Amino acid sequence: MAILTRDPETTARQLSGWLTERSPDRGGATVDEVGVPPGSGFSGETLLVDATWGDGGADRLVVRVAPTVHTIFWEPDFAGQYRVMAALDAHTDVPMPEMLAYEDDPRWLGAPFSLMRRVDGEAPADRPSYTEEGFVVDASPEKRRRLYDSGLEAMARVHLADWRGLGLDFLSKPQLGDLGVDQMLADTERWWASASDGTPNPVIDATWAWVRENRPPTTPAEHVALCWGDARIGNQLFHDFDCVAVLDWELVALGDPLSDLGWWRFVDRHHSEMRGLDRLEGFPTLDETAARWAARVGRDLDPDLLAFYEVFGGLRFAIVMVRLADLLVEIGLLPDAGDMATNNVITHLLARILDLPEPGPLVLY
């Protein structure tokens, strides 16, 4: 269950003042309610806001507040995420929320925040998994297929976006190497060094060895695209089984979009195969998924390269689990993380893919 950690009355008063100052011609704003979305994750603070205006208008809004202490992801560029989302909203056919404003002054909420219009839709849940209960399981096979295809189409539109024309070249990190696999690997190396603090993690360490040995030498310039990062249907909102919003851009980067497809496939396996479940009737196979994506973006599919990026996606997801274990202890939801950082469903799936020893009895966090 999602919990509002801020005092709702204080937060409503702060946002009322900010909205009034931001839009002085609307006769003043009153925030009537502040809540949090059900099932919201740990990558940032998200507030649902209902506001009424002196001119008679009303708005249903979402406020995302920049993290200030523990972060799941490595050095998240909160302002950069807003720039990406705003560019996609204004200039592409990627389904996005309407991006309304960015505030970098921390005096209002204690940290920078962004404002967007709320989208009516529902995301397939992680806990309990959408493969076990919820609106996806309850749907017909035809509606499930529509949902999956719509989500895949939305991801392909991200990859087809003209990132240069959108002014998103600021995402490049030339100090880490060439655009593509060089920058992604170097950035993940830094993230892992920060997350692990030198503590051994047998599956992650073995996966790193595999990734270094099997990495492609370079990413051709024509294959560099805008990469969403945390690519999965759980980070999309659906209305009537059509994708209406692509969310959660903490890992946005420029690179080979096979990194998104690999992550997408890895998470798909996590929600079905690793729970001992058959794929939901109506969902395409993983091979069909890859073929449809390749046809949509106009690219020949290299199975070995896709296999690399699927493992690489699993590696990055395993680092997320290490950070999550620390966070759950830090905020008091777990007294002790035990072996969660080394033994979880993600490390088990990596061990299965790479034929490594299992890290322990499987626990589905």
From TrEMBL:
Q: Where is the Aminoglycoside phosphotransferase domain?
A: 37-263
Task: State the source organism's domain of life.
Answer: Bacteria
- Cited InterPro entries: ACAD10_11_N, AGP_Transferase, Aminoglycoside_PTrfase, Kinase-like_dom_sf
Q: Name one Pfam family in it.
A: APH
Name of protein:
Phosphotransferase family protein
